[in-house]
Write a structure and sequence with these properties.
Blueprint: H1 14-18, H2 21-52, H3 55-63, H4 68-78, H5 85-105, H6 110-122, H7 124-138, H8 142-170, H9 174-195, H10 210-223, H11 225-241, H12 243-246, H13 248-259, H14 263-288, H15 291-294, H16 298-307, H17 318-345, H18 352-380, H19 383-403, H20 408-421
Helix pairs in contact: 2-3, 2-8, 2-9, 3-18, 4-6, 4-7, 4-10, 4-18, 5-6, 5-7, 5-9, 7-18, 8-9, 8-14, 8-17, 10-11, 10-18, 11-16, 11-17, 11-18, 11-19, 13-14, 14-17, 16-17, 16-19, 18-19
């Protein structure tokens, strides 16, 4: 049994993960851009709500950073299979830097501001796909699981600091928050270029059309039963934990009117609560729970994510709202590293960047859609009831998905098939023409490569 599929007796340590110099560079660069983006997101959300006094528009401002994945994400992430990962990441960072400089230095109407934010997010798709394809080339075995947990917890920690800092900075100068984000992208590009070695793109026997390659990624994810089960579970869980963050500005305004508190402080509390719980969930799963127990907790965590927000129906205080949101974040992030590792190992070489594009596009689109729908509903109905009833529906959905979750032996078999489909002897071998690498029916011929992570 290889290191990828063998279940170790103990989790890998953070020290073991950080011994890899390339991982340290990728980690630092990604955390910098995350922090800058969350600072900008909090500032823009507050700015739009202050200018328009509209819950729907403030929710749209928050959702704008998610929706580009729906339109351009699958196509753009396919580029990560065609060019060197390091080059794609650097180019995307350098493309986003001037966009945020314009947002910071030019006084723009709300519509133009959201349009530029939309364009900047398009560059995030190939950048994240390249990073995700690169990480498993650096980390192996349980180090990969711990590395993914570290990325997940650091993402949430960046949200905490970014949302708090962004909400605070926006009170004085939203432009400063946007300028900080531009600087972060420049630093990230420099770190990746100097700290990560060049790797050639995946070898390709014949050039395929971008749309054809993109469609192959969708067929793989949704045509393979185990991958499809993971995708549906993750997409469904994203419908709920994101809602308190997306509606934080409006929810904070409602709570401040009732209790006489400062709305900006309540907004920061709510927006920081989900990532706070997420940090705890990622660290618990990655460093405390034994690898053999992780899969058994997927279904309980999946149900807990929406269940935690059902008490919003009782219109609780800001502190209770924050606690409920933290539990939801804990549950979602508790299941992600485990399902992520299963997804990665069950993918054949040459497909992982595209499969990542499918997953991340779905996640971003689902979160943006959830925020938009609940934001529109909150224009007509009490916000706390919208969140509570939305979560009740989520409990029913997650119970259904948990009942249909595949048994562990099916994931073991899927991972074994993916390993058999990988090239042997040379890096340029491929699976036989006309055979799908996992399921067997006729399908696209996968190019062979050293690929990387293809999930959330």
């Amino acid at each position: 049994m290889s290191e990828e599929t063998q279940v170790p007796e103990r989790p890998a340590t953070f020290r073991e993960v950080f011994t890899e110099g390339e991982f340290r560079s990728v980690y630092l660069a990604v955390v910098l851009t995350w922090a800058g983006d969350y600072i900008a997101k909090a500032a823009i959300t507050m700015l739009v709500f202050q200018q328009t006094n509209s819950v729907a528009l403030s929710a749209a401002a928050f959702a704008t950073s998610y929706l580009p994945w729906l339109l351009g994400g699958p196509l753009l992430t396919t580029l990560a299979d065609r060019y060197p990962y390091r080059t794609v990441m650097v180019v995307c960072d350098l493309a986003r830097m001037p966009l945020f400089l314009v947002l910071a230095l030019v006084d723009l109407p709300v519509g133009v501001l959201l349009g530029l934010l939309f364009v900047s997010t398009l560059a995030a798709a190939p950048s994240q796909a390249s990073r995700s394809a690169m990480v498993p080339l650096i980390l192996r075995g349980d180090r990969l699981v711990v590395g993914l947990s570290l990325f997940s917890s650091s993402s949430q920690a960046s949200q905490i600091g970014g949302y708090v800092a962004g909400s605070s900075i926006a009170l004085y100068s939203p432009r400063l928050a946007l300028l900080i984000n531009a600087v972060m992208f420049g630093l990230s590009a420099l770190i990746i270029w100097t700290g990560v070695r060049h790797r050639p793109p995946a070898p390709r026997e014949t050039p395929n059309h971008l749309l054809r390659d993109t469609a192959a990624g969708f067929r793989l994810v949704f045509g393979t039963p185990t991958l499809r089960a993971i995708a549906i579970l993750i997409f469904s869980s994203m419908l709920f934990a994101i809602v308190p963050e997306g509606l934080a500005a409006a929810w904070a305004s409602d709570l401040a009117e009732k209790q006489g508190d400062h709305p900006e402080l309540i907004q920061a509390l709510i927006m920081a609560s989900v990532p706070t719980g997420s940090v705890m969930g990622a660290l618990l799963v990655g460093r405390v729970i034994r690898p053999a127990r992780r899969q058994a907790l997927i279904r309980p965590f999946a149900v807990l994510a929406p269940l935690a927000l059902v008490p919003a129906l009782l219109s609780p205080s800001p502190v209770i709202v924050a606690l409920l949101a933290a539990v939801a974040g804990f549950a979602v992030t508790g299941l992600i590293p485990v399902t992520n590792a299963l997804f990665v190992q069950a993918l054949p070489d040459g497909y992982r960047a595209r499969a990542f594009g499918v997953m991340n596009t779905g996640m971003q689109a689902i979160q943006g859609t959830a925020v938009l729908i609940t934001g529109v509903l909150a224009e007509r109905f009490p916000l706390h009831r919208v969140v509570g009833l939305w979560s009740v529906a989520g409990v029913l959905l997650m119970l259904l998905l948990a009942a249909r979750w595949p048994q562990p032996d099916r994931f073991t078999a899927a991972i074994a098939r993916a390993r058999e489909a990988r090239p042997t002897g040379t890096e340029t071998s491929a699976t036989p023409t006309g055979k799908h690498p996992l399921t067997g029916p006729p399908g696209p011929r996968p190019p062979s490569s050293e690929a990387g992570i293809g999930a959330v």
